[in-house]
Design brief:
The chain is of the alpha/beta class. It contains 11 helices and 12 strands. The chain starts with a helix and ends with a helix.
Amino acid sequence: MKNWITGAIVAATITIAAPVAAQTVGVATSNPGSLFHNIGTAVANAANAGGVDTTIQPATSPNQYIPFVNSGGIEFGVANLQEINYALGGDAWWNGVENPEIRVVAHLQPLVTAFFVRADGDITDLAGLAGQPVTDGYTAQNTILPQLAAYYATAGLTRDDVEPINVTSVVAGGDAFMAGDAVAFYFAHGAGKVREADAAVGGLRALPVADPSDEALAAAREHWPTAFFMEMSAGALPGIMEDGTFIAFPQVIFTHANVPDDVVYAFTRALHDNAAVMGETFPPMRAFRPENMRGDPGVAEFHPGAIQFYDEMGIE
């Protein structure tokens, strides 16, 4: 953690669509193997393709790097919108510690998650997790716990209905599953660790929402307010053995209020113009749609540099 926080953002000459101060900008991500590391890498590649000299700076989770972006320690970060909503107001696991300088730059593609089990095992639905050893705790990623609760709620379960196998992060959870310590782990579809686990155990099964009703969605939103249901086709990604419904929620690139408008403008333009680069870097980002970048920011505000670009492009 100390290495990347104290690492200098070195000055460099860059050429971009709008004049900006010569500098390299950073994108904070989660650790390698995580979805946000993959996404942050794709975002950085797109920014570089657009002429903005960009590097990534990994940490364990957004719990750690959201405050760093808020303090102006690094220019950008990737997270889900619910985390940003909570962080701004100091709600939930932020325990009253507000991050008021956070601003949204753009919506990315939806984040779709699941519990994963062995494809050759006996568990075929969420209800089958009752009484079983399942990854939990997530001491370095507080954001995961209400997501778990949201999934369990769709099946009439709670976190108390499983045997918790405490891990620090989703990456550690994947490792615990591969080591045989848990029968299920929680992760985002398409992440590198999911593909690793899929290969390690000879195939995964992603457990869908059995009853994607309005009532089930309302139960999920009691724990994770930005949740929505998303259909996934069999074979689309590792673990999806049949057509099914999974919980999804918005994910965003965010910044600090005092990052210069021209820097954020150029960064936003680079993402817009290089969507194909993101999809080539990380295939799940092929779901990114430039026309949807100006989605609902929740309780957050868009950075003025991003608004300037959206207004010029007629993106509402």
